[in-house]
Design goal:
The chain is α/β, with parallel strands linked by helices. It has one domain: TIM Barrel (Alpha-Beta Barrel), CATH 3.20.20. It has helices at about 1-15, 80-85, 90-100, 110-115, 120-135, 165-180, 205-220, 235, 265-275, 300-315, 345-350; strands spanning about 55-60, 60-65, 75, 105-110, 140-145, 145-150, 155, 185-190, 190-195, 225-230, 255, 285, 320-325. It has an 8-stranded parallel barrel with strand order 3-4-5-8-10-11-12-13, surrounded by 6 helices. A 3-stranded mixed β-sheet has the order 7-6-9. α8 links the parallel β10 (about 225-230) and β11. The protein is globular.
């Protein structure tokens, strides 16, 4: 019996030593070894998490908690890490966006910034943005802002370098952190998938579709409410594969980026063929487009601005203009002081206030 008791004690000690709950290191001591580390603690519950009405999908529309159709007009800011590094991060930026008429703000998170700042510190920026948007009655898109071929892990520029694993980890972190927060209405899974005429390898629509389905399933295990947005190929422009093979997931939306240079005039016929038709079945958001009068000799002008706004709203497609920043292009802001606007910024301000001829 003494032998049995000794062995039992040893086994109990071993079980305690290898338990899954993380060991807490006293102040001033080293963090626990890898075998003593577990999942990070759940986020602190936000008492204001459900202050804005929940946005959901019903058929081919986004609807609020009353079931009313919502057509979003909004804008994108630059990466919060960039803005903070310039000393411009603060509620005033979001107040100015609200004055522009924005009711949806797209927040692009670049993989390089996410890594360098570290996820924990980056989440602190996103928490501030979500809090300010809640105050202002503005909804949020969180956008994993990479450009390239996620299957081959080849990207257009080093700032966009990521991996499938990092992308899954990003969305697992975001969904776990913001699940249940109705201000965060959308998760834009990947900014602009492109093969760049083969320079970034190969990836079929079926392969891209499967990647999104897997990410959505993982997101939903943490967050069943926030709406995932899936981008088309060709720099998030082309949704034509939806005619025969849509993503197998309910309650999602699709993304297009209809910059003027994507197709030659007449634009409307080609927009209808490339993405507009999909609105008959699915809710769409044009999460990135814009123009610059400072580029002479291009078709990017207010002529295009009028045409794209009329087309999108005539089709019931929500939209987000790029970009409310003075350095990134096409810039809507001429300067930080005193938040002066470019010609495209003035145009989109009028559009967000419903002052363009032909708007609903």
């Amino acid at each position: 019996m003494k032998t049995f008791s000794l062995m039992t004690a040893i086994l109990l000690a071993m079980l305690c030593a290898f338990q899954e709950t993380p060991a807490q290191a006293p102040s001033g001591e080293k963090a626990p070894h890898w075998w003593g580390q577990g999942m990070p603690p759940r986020p602190v519950k936000n008492p204001r998490a459900r202050e804005l009405p929940l946005i959901s999908v019903r058929g081919n529309r986004f609807v609020n908690a009353k079931g009313d159709t919502v057509l979003f007009r909004g804008l994108a800011i630059a990466d919060p890490d960039k803005i903070d590094g310039q000393g411009r991060w603060g509620k005033e930026l979001f107040q100015k966006a609200a004055e522009m008429g924005a009711r949806l703000i797209r927040i692009p998170v670049h993989p390089v910034a996410w890594r360098e700042r570290t996820p924990g510190k980056y989440l602190a920026l996103l928490d501030q943005a979500v809090e300010w948007c809640t105050d202002l009655g503005i909804y949020v898109i969180i956008d994993w802002h990479s450009i390239g071929n996620l299957k081959a892990e080849l990207f257009q520029n080093p700032m966009y370098n990521t991996s499938l694993q990092e992308t899954f980890e990003f969305w697992r972190t975001i969904a776990r952190h913001f699940g249940g927060n109705t201000t965060v209405a959308f998760y834009e899974i990947f900014n602009e998938p492109t093969l760049w005429s083969g320079r970034l390898g190969r990836m079929s629509w079926d392969e891209w579709k499967k990647i999104n389905e897997d990410i959505i399933a993982m997101i939903r295990s943490y967050d069943s409410e926030t709406i995932p947005l899936v981008a088309g190929l060709d720099w998030a422009y082309d949704l034509s594969p939806l005619r025969i093979n849509p993503v197998e997931a309910a309650g999602i939306g699709y993304v297009t980026h209809p910059y003027a240079q994507k197709r030659s005039k007449p634009w409307e016929i080609k927009w209808e063929e490339n993405f507009g038709f999909a609105e008959d079945q699915f809710p769409l958001v044009a999460t990135e487009f814009g123009f610059s009068e400072e580029r002479p000799g291009t078709v990017e002008s207010e002529e295009y601005g009028n045409a794209i706004i009329r087309y999108l709203e005539g089709r019931g497609i929500s939209w987000v203009a790029w970009v409310f920043d003075p350095e990134w292009r096409p810039a809507m802001m001429a300067s930080w002081e005193p938040f002066g606007l470019t010609s495209s910024g003035e145009f989109f301000k009028r559009a967000m206030h419903g002052q363009i001829a032909g708007q609903k």
